[in-house]
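call fold target=Ribosomal protein L11 methyltransferase
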Amino acid sequence: MQWTEVSVKTTSEAVEAVSNILMNYGASGVSIEDAKDFQNLKPGLYGPYGEIIDPKEVPHLSKGAVVSAYYPESRHIDRQAAKISTEVQGLTQFGLQSAPGEVKLTPVADENWKTAWEKYYHPFAVTRYLTVVPSWDDYQPKSALEQIIRLDPGMAFGTGTHPTTQLSLQALEIILRGGESMIDVGTGSGVLSIAAKLMGAGKITAYDVDDVAVASAKKNMTLNPQAAEIPVAVNDLLTGIHEQVDLVVANILAEIIVPLVPQAFENLKPGGLFLMSGIIKDKYELVIQTLQRAHFKITQTMKMADWYAIIAEKPIEGVK
């Protein structure tokens, strides 16, 4: 089968938004090369055989980012290239600078599919105890405390390397104690649900508005036996969902978090937590104000590069 790689040259702040655009056109996978992923890295055990490597010596972008998606020939994505370019350029209306926003199409033969992914995707320690590993890699834990999340990036974005996902995973390590019920909104690759299950969460339900993302999440769940039974379904945020849980998580854009806020409040138990990420600096105050108007209590904020994660609590009735 012939595949087409669609690459969008953009800014670091627009990575998630561009990823969403490409997924909405039926991408079978998204990879991200982001200059900011290298900014805070120090020499360490990054080599495939445990050797110490200086990240500055690894070929990478000096600025900006490139988001690449893969489409089977049956998608005829070449007919959609102009529309994709228009949507990328249109991100400015949401306060995201996407320039240069260049869209490039490159044919990729089926036999080169795995090679194309291996170029971008390697085991990545996202927290002290969590390492995201591509499904084909035989990586083994370095300690008894290290938890492995296996993902197939050939189906959806959310591989754990972007700051928004890293912040979400770090926040989960902070708030999970074990046994919590959880709803994962906009699950993407399912990485947050898988991580939460590895950390001891109880009942988890995952939703995404995109059929491709749901299929991807289900596949990734099966790669991680502890998470294999997590139900994943198509749904528009939490519309029509009425279930009291301990934790709602959402790693999505701020513009989508805003309408989710009252839905999350309704679906949380008193004292429950709402963890959200994907919030660019310019939208931080908007999200904070929306949470406060909905009577959430902000308990913690986290920042990486220009991205924020927020942990908010639904107050316990009768407690001021």
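return ok
The first helix runs from residue 15 to 24. Residues 254 and 279 are 5 Å apart (CA to CA).
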